[in-house]
Amino acid sequence: MKKKKIAYISVAVVAALVLLTFGAGWFMLDYALKPDEGRRDTTAFYKQMRQEYPWTTPWLDSLKHAGALRDTFITTLGGERHHALFVRNPRSMGRTAILVHGYKDCSIRMLPIASIYERMGYNILLPDLHAHGLSDGNDIQMGWKDRKDIIRWIYVARGMFRSTTYQPRMVLHGVSMGAATVMNVSGENLPDGICCFVEDCGFTSVWDEFSRQLGDQFHLPDFPVLHVASLLCKLRYGWTFGEASPLSQLGKQHTPMFYIHGTSDDYVPSAMVLPLYNMNPAYENKADKTLRYNDIWLTPGCAHAKSYHDYPYEYERKVRNFVSKHVGM
Length: 329
Description:
Elements: H1 2-33, H2 42-52, H3 57-66, E1 70-75, E2 81-87, E3 95-100, H4 111-120, E4 123-127, H5 146-160, E5 169-175, H6 177-186, E6 194-200, H7 206-218, H8 225-237, H9 246-250, E7 257-262, H10 273-279, E8 282-284, E9 291-293, E10 295-299, H11 307-310, H12 312-327
Parallel strand pairs: 3-4, 3-5, 5-6, 6-7, 7-10
Antiparallel strand pairs: 1-2, 2-4, 8-9
Helix pairs in contact: 1-8, 5-6
């Protein structure tokens, strides 16, 4: 009788631990991938952007006054509507910049960087990622499934900015989760005209980033919560934290890539940029088929996603030099 009682207690304890672990994994998944309730509040995003980047206000006001900053929507294969802002540039000569925002941000937050490309003469397309801004969706995709949406936007941009004189030439530039997105895109089969990428403070994989946040915010090890949350993500959304890996995507081909990361970034640790760079340190020069080293810039003292804010002139100069080298003038 005593042995049975011990067995029942043991089973109950194990069952409770399993339920507790799955509950913690479910909580983590919702905590990480649930969209922000205020994601459609464009007024708040514009206000925040103007406060953080006041030097962009005259440019933004001029765009709005001229009606040059416009909206467009596409319908996904799943029937959801995705939104983007765009600006046509009469000096583009076929050049377009697709700019991708970060976690729980939206297209509006990329307007300061868009001003760089507008001054360079580029058309600009700023998508709202799935479940961000004015785009539909109930789950944040952490740049993984987003890569397919951005490839769709590439084709939209080719049609939207079509020129009878010039061939399309594009740069993809992302910040934070947007940087992870463009790195994920770089590993796919892409249409002609994708010339280069700029990744600003992207992470190596969703697993690595969530592991960091699990430790920093909740002081928990990876096992078992992260493993369970990843399994639940596979069951609910069709992908795991481990497979969502910009690091792996970079290893698929040699790609012109500019790597930017703040040295004081403690959200996506600055140490992540080194394995990313080492996975794709060079690209093949089309003219002579030789390998050339990619650019990397560690911005001194910068926190997460603050490189342009803290070093606006240097940031623009370096981006101009890199992009012009690959896209052309």
